[in-house]
Amino acid sequence: MDVRMREVPAQVVVTEQRMVDQQSLERWLPEAMARVHKTAGSMAAETAEQPYLLRDHVGDEPVFIVIYEGNPNEGETAVECCTPLAQRQMVRLCGRFRRTGKRTYAS
To answer: So where are the chain's domains?
Structure first.
């Protein structure tokens, strides 16, 4: 497997987090992906707007980021499902979001 590093711009995401084990993860993740994508609506960034994803070989698709704090096969762990918002929307959202630590939350 080739591992490549590249710089990517900062992202604002719609996120949902849950404590799950592997069995719960398999049920929760598809539903969480649908919810964060629906919440982002027309502001969701898709693959065409994020060339650094190197997915030119596929059509424009929704993008999801899944972050595991541990291994759900070993028991409950925090899992976060996110979808990034399009950079073109950031100027409009400036007054609606506040930054807290590493995550951005709607106020």
So the answer is: 13-106
